[in-house]
Amino acid sequence: MTSSLFFPPAPNTVSMAAREALRNLPSASGPEDLEIHRGMCAAVQRDLGAIQLERHGVRMEERAVGPVPVRVFSPPTMSHQNKGSVLLNLHGGGFIVDAGSITENVPIAAYAGVTVVAARYRLAPEHPFPAAVNDAEAVYRALLSQYAPERIGLYGTSAGACLCAQLLMRLRKTDCPLPRVLGFFSGTADLSRSGDSEAFFRPSEELKLTADHFSDYVGNSDRISPEVSPIFADLTGLPPTLCIAGTRDFMLSQTALFHQALLRSGVDARLLVFEAMPHAHWIFLDLPESDQAFRAMASFFASHMD
């Protein structure tokens, strides 16, 4: 496949810090050796996570919900009302690494003033679909034993956003109460097709046939089934949803397509697109645009869980 990637100069419509980050954005997604990749991601979560924890005054605890390890984030201050609320995060990482179980959640806990539980679900290829969904469901049901569903929020970035949508399909299939609000950030609800933005902004080594994308996770499952690709499901009745992406995000198309599908189903869905930002730009902790994204997420959750 011929690459059509094009990276124009950083525009002056974004912050100076963002312009510098865009100029130095790596063209590769990570090392091919999975264990090396996982080790690098673990180091990022440890090192950048430590910076975040200190910066925001958030406390993190390692726990387990049955066999599923979780990380629990407690904000420095919490209102009496928020003590009855919780947010469940399903981290990103292409279903094969943990790229966000700390970095996605510390600012959210601080800005929303709500406890965040990050499910450290089983990863592919060792554990293909539906193992991660099973783990997410186990953690969600455990939270239901402590919190009312209208006091639970659900969100994820990238692969985590996809898992959130898959989890909602599982919960509805089993007549389980749905969470009050959904955050679908820079993700996809369709594992059967590639979106337009992927041809422009995916790392060059990931430009391959759609059938090869996420193959370690999908395994032998049917990509067009609603359980795997929720965009093909009846989305009526899903919770209010905030979708976020950037104009240089290779998942912009998929995020927008899911947003449109939600609107067609009558869901209160909003789409926030950041100028010139790449995939999941909030991983760049010192960008003003990163902080803006985290504050928008936290504000959306807080507004629906009051």
Describe the structure.
The chain is of the alpha/beta class and 306 residues long. The protein has a single domain (52-305), classed as 3-Layer(aba) Sandwich (Rossmann fold), CATH 3.40.50. It is built from nine helices and eight strands. It has helices at residues 16-23, 34-56, 106-112, 131-144, 159-173, 196-201, 215-218, 252-264, 288-305, and strands spanning 59-65, 68-74, 86-90, 115-119, 152-157, 181-185, 241-248, 269-278. The chain has an eight-stranded mixed sheet with strand order 1-2-4-3-5-6-7-8, sandwiched between helices. Helix 3 (106-112) crosses helix 9 (288-305) and helix 4 crosses helix 5. 47% of the residues are buried.
Structural class: alpha/beta
Strand order of the largest sheet: 1-2-4-3-5-6-7-8
Summarize model confidence as the mean pLDDT.
Answer: 93
Q: Please report the distance between the alpha carbons of the first and last residues.
A: 50 Å
Please state roughly what percent of the residues sit in beta strands, choosing from under 5%, 5-15%, 15-25%, 25-35%, 35-45% or over 45%: 15-25%
Q: Please summarize the sheet with the most strands.
A: 8 strands, mixed
Q: Share of helix among residues?
A: 25-40%
CATH third-tier fold name: Rossmann fold
User: Can you identify the CATH class?
Assistant: Alpha Beta
Summed up, the helix count is 9
* Low-pLDDT segments: none
The total tally of domains equals: 1
Global outline = globular
**DSSP summary, beta strand count:** 8
| Oligomer class | single chain
Radius of gyration: 18 Å
Identify the CATH architecture. Answer: 3-Layer(aba) Sandwich
